[in-house]
Amino acid sequence: MRSFPVKNYLIFYRPIDEGIEIVPILHGLQDIETIFQDED
Predict the structure, then answer these.
(1) Quick one: which of 30, 25, 29 has its CA closest to 11?
(2) Per-residue pLDDT reduced to its tens digit, 1-40
(3) Beta-sheet strand order (sheet of 9-16)
(4) pTM of the predicted protein model
(5) What is the widest separation between alpha-carbon atoms in the chain?
(6) Which residues of 8-21 are buried (b: 16+ CB within 10 A; e: fewer)?
(7) Residue 2: which region, alpha, beta or left (left: phi > 0; alpha: psi -120 to 50)?
């Protein structure tokens, strides 16, 4: 998974054969580590 910032947001995406798949779009002030740990 990769990410890039846009203003106050982080856009997470995965490269796929057809292009990219946008996963979540999160506000930069959120606890991103906790959000992704909760998905396990």
Answers:
(1) 25
(2) 888 899 998 888 999 999 999 987 887 767 776 766 755 5
(3) 2-6, 9-16, 19-27
(4) 0.63
(5) 32
(6) eeeebbeeeeeeee
(7) beta
